[in-house]
């Protein structure tokens, strides 16, 4: 039996490693993600059953290890220098001329896309990854090996006959799709979103938990070399070919150019194509191809003379900063927003830009009346880059963080770079909370968009959440707002009876949505849709929830000590308890049909914590979750020891491997359908 397991393990390791190389290094995938995950899960099960077969450098090793207590500093054997930048084609030609004059001939160069990520050095000894170190100061960096090992595009073992030592330098980056997904999750959890993919990548690599790196979809591409022993190559083009053979991802847009004219055309062509790539780039890096030429050219104290980065300038415009308003979020955070003279940037007219926080304003010394340079961060979010100091007018007004909330007048509190309004009755906070409460994933009251909510609050028709369910038809219909007619004239338009009736009807339906939707809508810290459902499953009604202790919350799926303590604190607040009383008075359903006490007990889902991953052909995920909850299940978003069942569809995520590792029962879609039709 052991020999069969060993043979199967070797077959699986070979197949999975070939699949990784085909996908990330050769750009020729031959296996679907769902098949990969299933085979990885099978290998994990074999290694769990036969500990002697565990391979520390095999595919299962990517599942991750225990969280680290910190990062050690490691020294680079070969300094990891940065590259000088150039921003014009004339300067680039001048660099090539200098190289040619020093060498006595025009050198061939390699042009690589300049990926906007985090520089990393990977050290392989006898073909096995032994260390991953960030650039740091060029001499030393942070050892982030544990986090890098879980990145699928990084080979843990090189293919073929590997040299004694090979250090490859490259970039770890986050593709656009992964970045958007990460920020969407952070926004849902009321965490600060990352400003750009590079910041997200850097933060991920410095996480103490490798599971974070595994889940965020990071990738690696090689673009240079460090120490080499046992590998004698003459050119970087040969090195790229060798790395491809080893299974190391290299950029398929690397181009060898034999003169400056060809190089310039390549740079110009890539500049037009770069915006359509699935990851962020900000230029191209030119490197002399021959290694002996590199030795002759040498380096300065900071950068090699044989390489230069051509950076495409982002579109920037200047405009005048007219004023700054401090917007109050539903949690009380005051965020500065600049209002400027309108200016076209990146295809749209920009009037407003984020100023982030008061520390950023002070660092850039931004003042009212200044001429400022703006660009779209990541070509999406307008932001102020700098002030044109030469144009600063006499009397430019310094910007100060408000000492009082601009909405309610309450004293503000500073916490690091952020400023907060702590007044629980602040009308601006309340407006934002109402917008959240009526949203689609919360109470889902149709017709209550941002403008209508602001009208209702400003008119005094909604002073607490319960007012949404007792709206007066005539008063609401008479509300007026400005709109632009076909002639371009601004006119006042009433909300009208028809719209008022639709809102009232939708509110009547929302009244019956139950405890989970109410909890999701309250905007309590760390409590999103999934956590609200978990609470509704555990507690039959609001009274039981309000009587619970932090220890009871901590025992729930996906609830840690921090979330439990935060929730217990919020539910103890007088204003939160009053919200529940007010909602109960107007007939809002605060019970839970999916609570354990009222759940179905004769289904295979009763009392089980279930996680769904991947794509299911015959089900809408939200509808399936509600159906399973009605059958007594508790739905969770992540796999843990508390998980009973993982339902895995096509393109299942790393949750599948983790489930196998923890011994969690895994169902495919066919098994799910069979169980749903079971009478057991």
Give the helix/strand layout.
Elements: H1 2-25, H2 33-49, E1 73-75, E2 85-86, H3 89-103, E3 109-115, E4 118-125, E5 128-134, E6 140-142, H4 145-148, E7 165-173, H5 176-188, H6 197-205, H7 210-215, E8 219-229, H8 236-246, E9 255-257, H9 260-273, E10 281-288, H10 291-297, E11 307-311, E12 316-328, E13 333-345, E14 348-354, H11 358-364, E15 367-368, E16 371-377, E17 381-387, E18 397-398, E19 412-415, E20 418-421, H12 427-437, H13 450-458, H14 473-477, E21 480-484, E22 490-494, H15 497-510, H16 515-521, H17 529-538, H18 542-547, H19 550-554, H20 561-572, H21 574-585, E23 609-613, H22 621-630, E24 634-636, E25 645-648, H23 655-662, E26 665-667, H24 669-676
Parallel strand pairs: 2-11, 23-24, 23-25, 25-26
Antiparallel strand pairs: 1-6, 3-9, 3-10, 4-5, 4-7, 7-8, 10-11, 12-13, 12-16, 13-14, 13-20, 15-18, 16-17, 19-20, 21-22
Helix pairs in contact: 1-2, 2-23, 12-13, 16-17
Q: So, the CATH homologous superfamily of the largest domain?
A: DNA ligase/mRNA capping enzyme
Q: N-to-C terminal Cα separation, in Å?
A: 35 Å
User: DSSP helix count?
Assistant: 24
Q: Average pLDDT across residues? A: 84
Give the radius of gyration.
29 Å
Sheet having the most strands: 7 strands, antiparallel
CATH topology of the largest domain: D-amino Acid Aminotransferase, Chain A, domain 1
Structural shape:
globular
Number of domains: 6
Structural class: alpha+beta
CATH architecture of the largest domain: 2-Layer Sandwich
Level-1 CATH class name of the largest domain: Alpha Beta
Beta percentage is: 15-25%
Question: Which regions have little confidence, pLDDT < 50, spanning 5+ residues?
Answer: 484-488
Please report the total strand number as a whole number.
26
Helix content: 25-40%
